[in-house]
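Async update (no meeting this week)

Hi team, since we skipped the sync, here's where things stand on the single-chain job. The sequence we agreed to prioritize is pasted below, unchanged from the tracker. I ran it this morning and attached the output directly underneath so nobody has to dig for it. Comments welcome in thread, and please keep replies under the output.
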Amino acid sequence: MFGNVRDCDMWVEAHRAKYHSNGLHPPGDPFWRRHFDQLLGHCGAVTDAPCSTFAAELLAAYPDAKVIVVSRPAGGLDMERWFDSFSVILRGHFALMLRVLSVLDPTWYGRIHAVGTAWMEDQLKAFNLEQALQNAPGVYERYYEEVRRLVPEERRLEYRLGEGWAPLCKFVGKDIPRGEDGAEVPFPHKNESQSLQKAFEEMGTKVVKRAARNVAGVVFAAAVAWASWLIAT
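Output:
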């Protein structure tokens, strides 16, 4: 979405089709395959939001797809780490500054923020930060239950963080990545909370610059109009 914000408009349309069409487009409806082919036809795999909001629709549109369920022990330390990183997203979305900037930069960040708003309101049933923080764990658990119910075992890998390359590579039929010396490439790992916080800061900087240009343009246009009026009178 960040590279092509026109995709945001299609994701918002997808939210309307799923949550606000009175059942007009259930999973399996031809609308979904056409829509996803346009949005995701260049992708070999998808993860995370906004795709995760449409698990049932994606699985019906691509019935041969393999699914990797990255599982975390319920109630354990891993679950706490997930919530810590996810809460960064929630706090960022509902931050007053970013909400104001979505208005001041409607053609780029405003469209990205619209997808986030649709996600919060439709899947998390949250219209403010307090509701989002309260509802997120339950939505998380129900989402995993839904995926496990929809995907047969032969097309589903239950992957636990820390298991390394072997189960993933076996499941997708690929060799374990190795360097020039033949040694196994270390499995990638990032601090999710820190990475997300950095991403929000970088995006905020970009949006502030765009919003400043937009505001300056409006002020300049107003000044020109005012000067023209003075000259005419």
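Quick observations from my side:
Residues 192-232 form the longest helix (41 residues).
Confidence is low (pLDDT under 50) at residues 218-231.
Reply here if anything looks off.
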